[in-house]
Design brief:
398 residues; alpha+beta; Butyryl-Coa Dehydrogenase, subunit A, domain 1; Butyryl-CoA Dehydrogenase, subunit A, domain 2; Butyryl-CoA Dehydrogenase, subunit A, domain 3; 3 domains; eight-stranded mixed sheet; two-stranded antiparallel ribbon; 14% strand; globular; binds flavin-adenine dinucleotide
Protein backbone atom coordinates (compact mmCIF):
# COMPACT_ATOMS: atom_id res chain seq x y z
CA UNK A 1 0.00 0.00 0.00
CA UNK A 2 1.18 3.50 -0.76
CA UNK A 3 2.64 4.75 2.48
CA UNK A 4 1.61 8.37 1.85
CA UNK A 5 4.77 9.40 3.70
CA UNK A 6 5.43 12.33 1.46
CA UNK A 7 8.87 13.76 0.96
CA UNK A 8 7.32 16.60 -1.02
CA UNK A 9 3.65 17.49 -1.37
CA UNK A 10 3.58 16.31 -4.98
CA UNK A 11 5.24 12.89 -4.81
CA UNK A 12 3.34 11.42 -1.82
CA UNK A 13 5.74 8.51 -1.47
CA UNK A 14 5.45 7.36 -5.08
CA UNK A 15 8.46 5.53 -6.51
CA UNK A 16 10.59 7.14 -9.25
CA UNK A 17 9.10 4.65 -11.76
CA UNK A 18 5.57 5.65 -10.74
CA UNK A 19 6.40 9.33 -11.08
CA UNK A 20 7.90 8.66 -14.51
CA UNK A 21 4.71 6.85 -15.52
CA UNK A 22 2.61 9.75 -14.28
CA UNK A 23 4.76 12.16 -16.31
CA UNK A 24 4.47 9.97 -19.41
CA UNK A 25 0.68 9.96 -19.09
CA UNK A 26 0.65 13.71 -18.51
CA UNK A 27 2.69 14.32 -21.67
CA UNK A 28 0.38 12.08 -23.71
CA UNK A 29 -2.68 13.90 -22.38
CA UNK A 30 -1.27 17.36 -23.01
CA UNK A 31 0.28 16.73 -26.42
CA UNK A 32 -2.13 14.21 -27.97
CA UNK A 33 -5.58 14.42 -26.36
CA UNK A 34 -6.15 17.97 -25.12
CA UNK A 35 -5.42 19.53 -28.54
CA UNK A 36 -8.27 17.41 -29.99
CA UNK A 37 -10.94 18.35 -27.43
CA UNK A 38 -12.70 21.18 -29.26
CA UNK A 39 -12.55 19.33 -32.56
CA UNK A 40 -14.21 16.33 -30.86
CA UNK A 41 -16.86 18.53 -29.27
CA UNK A 42 -17.71 20.15 -32.59
CA UNK A 43 -17.97 16.71 -34.20
CA UNK A 44 -20.49 15.54 -31.59
CA UNK A 45 -17.79 13.47 -29.91
CA UNK A 46 -16.88 11.43 -32.99
CA UNK A 47 -13.39 12.00 -34.33
CA UNK A 48 -12.31 10.82 -37.78
CA UNK A 49 -11.16 7.21 -38.03
CA UNK A 50 -7.56 8.21 -38.91
CA UNK A 51 -7.41 10.52 -35.88
CA UNK A 52 -8.60 7.73 -33.57
CA UNK A 53 -6.02 5.34 -35.02
CA UNK A 54 -3.32 7.96 -34.43
CA UNK A 55 -4.40 8.35 -30.77
CA UNK A 56 -4.19 4.58 -30.34
CA UNK A 57 -0.73 4.46 -31.92
CA UNK A 58 0.50 7.26 -29.65
CA UNK A 59 -0.99 5.59 -26.56
CA UNK A 60 0.68 2.28 -27.41
CA UNK A 61 3.99 4.03 -28.13
CA UNK A 62 3.73 5.70 -24.71
CA UNK A 63 3.00 2.28 -23.12
CA UNK A 64 -0.34 3.43 -21.73
CA UNK A 65 -2.54 0.70 -23.23
CA UNK A 66 -4.00 -2.23 -21.30
CA UNK A 67 -2.88 -0.79 -17.96
CA UNK A 68 -3.94 -3.52 -15.50
CA UNK A 69 -3.70 -6.34 -18.04
CA UNK A 70 -0.70 -8.62 -17.34
CA UNK A 71 2.27 -8.17 -19.64
CA UNK A 72 1.96 -11.71 -21.04
CA UNK A 73 -1.34 -10.60 -22.62
CA UNK A 74 0.16 -7.39 -24.00
CA UNK A 75 -0.78 -5.07 -21.12
CA UNK A 76 1.35 -3.07 -18.71
CA UNK A 77 0.73 -5.07 -15.52
CA UNK A 78 0.25 -1.93 -13.43
CA UNK A 79 -0.57 -1.91 -9.75
CA UNK A 80 -3.78 -0.12 -8.81
CA UNK A 81 -1.76 2.89 -7.64
CA UNK A 82 -0.12 3.08 -11.07
CA UNK A 83 -3.52 2.72 -12.74
CA UNK A 84 -4.73 5.57 -10.53
CA UNK A 85 -1.84 7.84 -11.53
CA UNK A 86 -2.53 7.34 -15.23
CA UNK A 87 -6.33 7.46 -14.88
CA UNK A 88 -6.08 10.77 -13.06
CA UNK A 89 -4.16 12.26 -15.99
CA UNK A 90 -6.63 10.81 -18.50
CA UNK A 91 -9.49 12.32 -16.50
CA UNK A 92 -8.12 15.80 -17.21
CA UNK A 93 -9.44 15.50 -20.77
CA UNK A 94 -12.99 16.31 -21.89
CA UNK A 95 -15.01 14.44 -24.48
CA UNK A 96 -14.08 11.07 -22.99
CA UNK A 97 -11.13 11.07 -25.40
CA UNK A 98 -9.23 8.73 -23.12
CA UNK A 99 -11.66 6.00 -24.20
CA UNK A 100 -9.56 5.71 -27.34
CA UNK A 101 -6.65 4.41 -25.28
CA UNK A 102 -6.81 0.64 -25.89
CA UNK A 103 -7.92 -1.28 -22.82
CA UNK A 104 -10.43 -3.89 -21.67
CA UNK A 105 -12.85 -4.45 -18.80
CA UNK A 106 -11.37 -6.57 -16.00
CA UNK A 107 -14.02 -9.25 -16.63
CA UNK A 108 -12.06 -10.48 -19.64
CA UNK A 109 -9.16 -11.41 -17.36
CA UNK A 110 -11.38 -14.22 -16.05
CA UNK A 111 -11.65 -15.69 -19.53
CA UNK A 112 -10.39 -19.03 -20.77
CA UNK A 113 -7.09 -18.98 -22.72
CA UNK A 114 -9.17 -19.00 -25.93
CA UNK A 115 -11.37 -16.09 -24.76
CA UNK A 116 -8.29 -14.12 -23.72
CA UNK A 117 -6.64 -14.73 -27.09
CA UNK A 118 -9.79 -13.87 -29.05
CA UNK A 119 -10.96 -10.76 -27.15
CA UNK A 120 -8.57 -9.46 -24.52
CA UNK A 121 -5.31 -9.50 -26.49
CA UNK A 122 -6.73 -7.67 -29.55
CA UNK A 123 -8.51 -5.14 -27.29
CA UNK A 124 -5.21 -4.22 -25.67
CA UNK A 125 -3.65 -3.85 -29.14
CA UNK A 126 -6.47 -1.46 -30.11
CA UNK A 127 -8.08 -3.90 -32.52
CA UNK A 128 -11.62 -4.00 -31.14
CA UNK A 129 -12.85 -3.47 -27.62
CA UNK A 130 -15.62 -4.71 -25.37
CA UNK A 131 -18.91 -3.41 -23.96
CA UNK A 132 -20.69 -4.43 -20.78
CA UNK A 133 -24.44 -5.01 -20.86
CA UNK A 134 -26.36 -5.52 -17.63
CA UNK A 135 -28.95 -2.68 -17.50
CA UNK A 136 -32.43 -3.32 -18.88
CA UNK A 137 -35.56 -1.20 -19.25
CA UNK A 138 -36.95 -2.57 -15.97
CA UNK A 139 -33.68 -3.29 -14.17
CA UNK A 140 -31.20 -0.49 -13.53
CA UNK A 141 -30.38 0.21 -9.90
CA UNK A 142 -31.54 -3.31 -9.11
CA UNK A 143 -29.59 -5.49 -11.56
CA UNK A 144 -30.89 -8.61 -9.78
CA UNK A 145 -34.19 -7.84 -11.50
CA UNK A 146 -32.93 -8.51 -15.02
CA UNK A 147 -35.22 -10.51 -17.31
CA UNK A 148 -32.57 -11.66 -19.82
CA UNK A 149 -32.43 -15.42 -19.88
CA UNK A 150 -30.22 -18.21 -21.12
CA UNK A 151 -31.65 -21.67 -21.61
CA UNK A 152 -29.71 -24.74 -22.67
CA UNK A 153 -29.93 -25.69 -26.32
CA UNK A 154 -27.86 -28.19 -28.31
CA UNK A 155 -25.02 -28.17 -25.79
CA UNK A 156 -24.91 -24.37 -25.79
CA UNK A 157 -27.24 -21.56 -24.82
CA UNK A 158 -30.17 -19.66 -26.32
CA UNK A 159 -30.24 -16.07 -25.11
CA UNK A 160 -33.15 -13.64 -25.02
CA UNK A 161 -33.32 -10.15 -23.58
CA UNK A 162 -32.84 -6.47 -24.24
CA UNK A 163 -30.04 -4.34 -22.83
CA UNK A 164 -30.06 -0.58 -22.46
CA UNK A 165 -27.29 2.03 -22.36
CA UNK A 166 -24.59 -0.35 -23.62
CA UNK A 167 -21.59 1.98 -23.66
CA UNK A 168 -19.39 1.33 -26.71
CA UNK A 169 -21.85 -1.33 -27.85
CA UNK A 170 -21.77 0.34 -31.27
CA UNK A 171 -18.05 -0.23 -31.75
CA UNK A 172 -17.29 -3.25 -29.55
CA UNK A 173 -15.97 -6.49 -30.94
CA UNK A 174 -17.58 -8.39 -28.07
CA UNK A 175 -20.54 -7.74 -25.77
CA UNK A 176 -20.30 -8.96 -22.18
CA UNK A 177 -23.93 -9.78 -21.46
CA UNK A 178 -25.49 -10.59 -18.09
CA UNK A 179 -28.32 -13.14 -18.29
CA UNK A 180 -29.90 -15.59 -15.89
CA UNK A 181 -29.31 -19.22 -16.71
CA UNK A 182 -32.66 -20.88 -16.21
CA UNK A 183 -32.10 -24.14 -14.36
CA UNK A 184 -35.45 -25.48 -13.15
CA UNK A 185 -36.65 -23.01 -10.52
CA UNK A 186 -33.14 -21.51 -10.21
CA UNK A 187 -31.87 -18.33 -11.87
CA UNK A 188 -28.08 -18.31 -12.09
CA UNK A 189 -26.57 -14.92 -13.02
CA UNK A 190 -24.03 -15.59 -15.74
CA UNK A 191 -21.93 -13.51 -18.10
CA UNK A 192 -21.83 -14.41 -21.79
CA UNK A 193 -19.50 -13.18 -24.51
CA UNK A 194 -21.59 -12.44 -27.58
CA UNK A 195 -20.30 -10.97 -30.82
CA UNK A 196 -22.46 -8.11 -32.14
CA UNK A 197 -22.77 -9.72 -35.58
CA UNK A 198 -24.27 -12.96 -34.22
CA UNK A 199 -27.70 -13.87 -35.66
CA UNK A 200 -30.47 -12.51 -33.42
CA UNK A 201 -28.47 -9.52 -32.13
CA UNK A 202 -30.26 -6.32 -33.12
CA UNK A 203 -29.41 -2.69 -32.41
CA UNK A 204 -32.85 -1.20 -31.78
CA UNK A 205 -31.92 2.32 -30.67
CA UNK A 206 -28.92 4.67 -30.53
CA UNK A 207 -30.16 7.58 -28.41
CA UNK A 208 -28.39 10.90 -27.92
CA UNK A 209 -27.20 11.86 -24.43
CA UNK A 210 -26.14 15.00 -22.58
CA UNK A 211 -22.48 14.45 -23.34
CA UNK A 212 -20.70 14.21 -26.68
CA UNK A 213 -18.62 11.09 -26.32
CA UNK A 214 -16.51 8.89 -28.60
CA UNK A 215 -19.00 6.02 -28.63
CA UNK A 216 -22.73 5.51 -28.31
CA UNK A 217 -24.78 3.78 -25.62
CA UNK A 218 -27.18 1.77 -27.80
CA UNK A 219 -30.11 -0.43 -26.87
CA UNK A 220 -29.43 -3.99 -28.01
CA UNK A 221 -31.99 -6.79 -28.33
CA UNK A 222 -31.07 -10.47 -28.20
CA UNK A 223 -33.69 -12.71 -29.82
CA UNK A 224 -33.01 -16.44 -29.64
CA UNK A 225 -29.27 -15.84 -29.95
CA UNK A 226 -27.57 -19.25 -30.04
CA UNK A 227 -24.08 -19.41 -28.53
CA UNK A 228 -21.83 -22.36 -27.71
CA UNK A 229 -20.72 -23.37 -24.20
CA UNK A 230 -17.49 -21.43 -24.81
CA UNK A 231 -19.47 -18.15 -24.65
CA UNK A 232 -19.78 -18.36 -20.85
CA UNK A 233 -17.10 -16.37 -19.07
CA UNK A 234 -16.01 -17.25 -15.53
CA UNK A 235 -18.52 -20.11 -15.15
CA UNK A 236 -22.30 -20.51 -14.88
CA UNK A 237 -23.62 -18.68 -11.80
CA UNK A 238 -20.42 -16.63 -11.42
CA UNK A 239 -21.93 -13.45 -12.88
CA UNK A 240 -22.47 -11.65 -9.59
CA UNK A 241 -18.92 -12.20 -8.40
CA UNK A 242 -17.42 -10.94 -11.67
CA UNK A 243 -19.84 -8.05 -11.74
CA UNK A 244 -18.87 -6.94 -8.24
CA UNK A 245 -15.20 -6.92 -9.29
CA UNK A 246 -16.16 -4.99 -12.43
CA UNK A 247 -18.22 -2.45 -10.49
CA UNK A 248 -15.42 -1.96 -7.95
CA UNK A 249 -12.83 -1.17 -10.60
CA UNK A 250 -15.19 0.98 -12.66
CA UNK A 251 -16.27 2.98 -9.62
CA UNK A 252 -12.70 3.61 -8.58
CA UNK A 253 -12.04 4.57 -12.18
CA UNK A 254 -14.84 7.14 -12.10
CA UNK A 255 -13.35 8.63 -8.94
CA UNK A 256 -9.90 8.66 -10.52
CA UNK A 257 -11.09 10.42 -13.67
CA UNK A 258 -13.17 12.86 -11.61
CA UNK A 259 -10.05 13.85 -9.71
CA UNK A 260 -8.26 14.56 -12.97
CA UNK A 261 -11.22 16.69 -14.05
CA UNK A 262 -11.07 18.70 -10.82
CA UNK A 263 -7.33 19.15 -11.23
CA UNK A 264 -7.78 20.55 -14.76
CA UNK A 265 -10.73 22.73 -13.73
CA UNK A 266 -8.79 24.19 -10.83
CA UNK A 267 -5.75 24.90 -13.01
CA UNK A 268 -7.74 26.66 -15.70
CA UNK A 269 -10.06 28.52 -13.34
CA UNK A 270 -7.28 29.68 -11.04
CA UNK A 271 -5.24 31.01 -13.99
CA UNK A 272 -8.31 32.82 -15.27
CA UNK A 273 -9.17 34.31 -11.85
CA UNK A 274 -5.62 35.60 -11.49
CA UNK A 275 -5.54 37.13 -14.98
CA UNK A 276 -9.06 38.55 -15.23
CA UNK A 277 -9.66 42.07 -13.94
CA UNK A 278 -13.06 43.63 -13.24
CA UNK A 279 -13.88 46.70 -11.17
CA UNK A 280 -10.21 47.65 -11.15
CA UNK A 281 -8.89 44.47 -9.56
CA UNK A 282 -8.23 40.78 -10.15
CA UNK A 283 -11.41 38.75 -9.75
CA UNK A 284 -9.31 36.42 -7.54
CA UNK A 285 -9.37 39.23 -4.99
CA UNK A 286 -13.14 38.90 -4.64
CA UNK A 287 -14.01 36.27 -2.07
CA UNK A 288 -17.04 35.36 -4.20
CA UNK A 289 -14.47 33.97 -6.64
CA UNK A 290 -11.62 32.79 -4.41
CA UNK A 291 -13.73 30.93 -1.82
CA UNK A 292 -15.39 28.59 -4.36
CA UNK A 293 -11.88 27.86 -5.66
CA UNK A 294 -10.77 27.05 -2.12
CA UNK A 295 -13.76 24.75 -1.67
CA UNK A 296 -12.97 22.98 -4.95
CA UNK A 297 -9.30 22.57 -3.97
CA UNK A 298 -10.38 21.05 -0.66
CA UNK A 299 -12.80 18.69 -2.42
CA UNK A 300 -10.07 17.62 -4.81
CA UNK A 301 -7.48 17.04 -2.09
CA UNK A 302 -9.87 15.03 0.13
CA UNK A 303 -11.13 12.93 -2.77
CA UNK A 304 -7.58 12.18 -3.85
CA UNK A 305 -6.60 10.84 -0.44
CA UNK A 306 -9.64 8.59 -0.37
CA UNK A 307 -9.19 7.23 -3.88
CA UNK A 308 -5.48 6.63 -3.28
CA UNK A 309 -6.34 4.78 -0.10
CA UNK A 310 -8.72 2.48 -1.98
CA UNK A 311 -6.14 1.87 -4.72
CA UNK A 312 -3.56 1.04 -2.05
CA UNK A 313 -6.00 -1.37 -0.39
CA UNK A 314 -6.40 -3.24 -3.69
CA UNK A 315 -2.62 -3.52 -4.07
CA UNK A 316 -2.30 -4.72 -0.46
CA UNK A 317 -4.90 -7.48 -1.06
CA UNK A 318 -7.43 -6.13 1.47
CA UNK A 319 -10.88 -7.72 1.93
CA UNK A 320 -12.68 -7.33 -1.46
CA UNK A 321 -15.99 -6.58 0.29
CA UNK A 322 -14.44 -3.70 2.17
CA UNK A 323 -12.75 -2.48 -1.02
CA UNK A 324 -16.15 -2.65 -2.75
CA UNK A 325 -17.67 -0.36 -0.12
CA UNK A 326 -14.71 2.02 -0.08
CA UNK A 327 -14.76 2.26 -3.89
CA UNK A 328 -18.43 3.26 -3.59
CA UNK A 329 -17.42 5.93 -1.09
CA UNK A 330 -14.74 7.27 -3.44
CA UNK A 331 -17.14 7.28 -6.38
CA UNK A 332 -19.88 8.97 -4.37
CA UNK A 333 -17.64 11.67 -2.95
CA UNK A 334 -15.63 12.45 -6.08
CA UNK A 335 -18.54 12.38 -8.54
CA UNK A 336 -20.54 14.76 -6.38
CA UNK A 337 -17.49 16.97 -5.67
CA UNK A 338 -16.46 17.11 -9.33
CA UNK A 339 -19.97 18.20 -10.28
CA UNK A 340 -19.80 21.00 -7.71
CA UNK A 341 -16.33 21.96 -8.93
CA UNK A 342 -17.48 22.20 -12.58
CA UNK A 343 -20.48 24.29 -11.60
CA UNK A 344 -18.29 26.70 -9.65
CA UNK A 345 -15.83 26.87 -12.55
CA UNK A 346 -18.56 27.86 -15.00
CA UNK A 347 -19.60 30.64 -12.63
CA UNK A 348 -16.05 31.93 -12.29
CA UNK A 349 -15.58 32.01 -16.07
CA UNK A 350 -18.75 34.10 -16.36
CA UNK A 351 -20.25 34.20 -19.87
CA UNK A 352 -17.19 32.44 -21.27
CA UNK A 353 -18.02 29.49 -19.00
CA UNK A 354 -21.16 28.90 -21.03
CA UNK A 355 -19.27 28.49 -24.32
CA UNK A 356 -18.86 24.95 -25.62
CA UNK A 357 -15.25 25.80 -26.36
CA UNK A 358 -14.71 26.25 -22.61
CA UNK A 359 -13.44 23.30 -20.60
CA UNK A 360 -15.76 24.06 -17.67
CA UNK A 361 -18.87 24.02 -19.87
CA UNK A 362 -17.91 20.64 -21.27
CA UNK A 363 -17.08 19.15 -17.88
CA UNK A 364 -20.34 20.50 -16.43
CA UNK A 365 -22.25 18.33 -18.90
CA UNK A 366 -19.89 15.39 -18.98
CA UNK A 367 -19.38 14.88 -15.25
CA UNK A 368 -23.12 14.65 -14.60
CA UNK A 369 -23.33 11.03 -15.65
CA UNK A 370 -20.76 10.02 -13.03
CA UNK A 371 -23.52 10.38 -10.43
CA UNK A 372 -25.70 7.95 -12.43
CA UNK A 373 -23.74 5.21 -14.19
CA UNK A 374 -22.09 2.27 -12.44
CA UNK A 375 -24.74 2.79 -9.77
CA UNK A 376 -26.34 6.10 -8.86
CA UNK A 377 -25.21 8.14 -5.85
CA UNK A 378 -28.18 6.71 -3.95
CA UNK A 379 -27.03 3.16 -4.65
CA UNK A 380 -23.50 4.02 -3.48
CA UNK A 381 -25.02 5.31 -0.23
CA UNK A 382 -26.90 2.02 0.21
CA UNK A 383 -23.63 0.09 -0.23
CA UNK A 384 -21.80 2.33 2.26
CA UNK A 385 -24.64 2.08 4.78
CA UNK A 386 -24.56 -1.72 4.45
CA UNK A 387 -20.81 -1.66 5.11
CA UNK A 388 -21.39 0.31 8.31
CA UNK A 389 -23.70 -2.46 9.43
CA UNK A 390 -21.68 -5.47 8.26
CA UNK A 391 -18.04 -4.38 8.43
CA UNK A 392 -18.38 -1.86 11.25
CA UNK A 393 -17.80 1.85 11.53
CA UNK A 394 -14.04 1.70 12.06
CA UNK A 395 -13.31 -0.45 9.01
CA UNK A 396 -15.63 1.62 6.85
CA UNK A 397 -14.24 5.03 7.67
CA UNK A 398 -10.54 4.33 8.27
C1 LIG B 1 -24.55 7.43 -20.55
C2 LIG B 1 -24.85 6.15 -19.82
C3 LIG B 1 -24.04 5.04 -20.06
C4 LIG B 1 -24.31 3.83 -19.41
N1 LIG B 1 -23.53 2.73 -19.68
C5 LIG B 1 -23.92 1.52 -19.23
C6 LIG B 1 -23.22 0.33 -19.65
O1 LIG B 1 -22.21 0.39 -20.36
N2 LIG B 1 -23.71 -0.87 -19.25
C7 LIG B 1 -24.80 -0.99 -18.47
O2 LIG B 1 -25.19 -2.11 -18.17
N3 LIG B 1 -25.46 0.11 -18.02
C8 LIG B 1 -25.05 1.36 -18.39
N4 LIG B 1 -25.73 2.49 -17.99
C9 LIG B 1 -26.89 2.34 -17.13
C10 LIG B 1 -26.69 2.89 -15.72
O3 LIG B 1 -25.83 2.08 -14.98
C11 LIG B 1 -28.09 3.04 -15.09
O4 LIG B 1 -28.74 4.09 -15.79
C12 LIG B 1 -28.04 3.31 -13.61
O5 LIG B 1 -27.57 2.19 -12.91
C13 LIG B 1 -29.43 3.70 -13.06
O6 LIG B 1 -30.41 2.81 -13.47
P1 LIG B 1 -31.76 3.38 -14.13
O7 LIG B 1 -31.37 4.32 -15.21
O8 LIG B 1 -32.62 2.23 -14.52
O9 LIG B 1 -32.48 4.23 -13.00
P2 LIG B 1 -33.43 3.66 -11.85
O10 LIG B 1 -32.83 2.44 -11.26
O11 LIG B 1 -34.79 3.55 -12.38
O12 LIG B 1 -33.35 4.82 -10.79
C14 LIG B 1 -34.13 6.00 -10.88
C15 LIG B 1 -33.92 6.82 -9.62
O13 LIG B 1 -34.34 6.06 -8.48
C16 LIG B 1 -33.30 5.97 -7.53
N5 LIG B 1 -33.32 4.65 -6.88
C17 LIG B 1 -33.50 3.45 -7.47
N6 LIG B 1 -33.43 2.47 -6.55
C18 LIG B 1 -33.17 3.05 -5.36
C19 LIG B 1 -32.96 2.58 -4.03
N7 LIG B 1 -32.98 1.27 -3.76
N8 LIG B 1 -32.74 3.49 -3.06
C20 LIG B 1 -32.70 4.82 -3.33
N9 LIG B 1 -32.89 5.33 -4.57
C21 LIG B 1 -33.12 4.45 -5.57
C22 LIG B 1 -32.01 6.11 -8.35
O14 LIG B 1 -30.93 6.54 -7.54
C23 LIG B 1 -32.44 7.16 -9.38
O15 LIG B 1 -32.33 8.43 -8.82
C24 LIG B 1 -25.43 3.73 -18.54
C25 LIG B 1 -26.21 4.86 -18.31
C26 LIG B 1 -25.93 6.05 -18.94
C27 LIG B 1 -26.81 7.25 -18.69
Amino acid sequence: MNSLTATSPADQGFTPDQLELQERARTFVETVLIPLEVQAEEAGGRLAHETIEEIKREAIAARLNGGRVPTQHGGQGWSMIEWFLVGEQLGRVTGGLHWHVPSAYNVLLSGSPEQIERYLVPAVRGEGGDAYAVTEAEAGSDPDGIASSAVQSDGGWRINGEKWFVTSGDVARVLIVMANVVDGPERLPTLFLIEPGAPGVEFVDDPKFTHNYPHGHPTIRFSDVEVGPEAVIGGVGEGHRLQREWFTEERLGIATHGLGAMWRLLEDTTSWALARHQGGQRIMDYQGVSFPLADSATDAAVGRLLALQVAGMVDAGADPKLIHAKASMAKLFVSEAAGRCADRAVQIFGGRGYLRSNVAERFLRELRVDRIWEGTSEIQRLIIARALERRGVEATIH
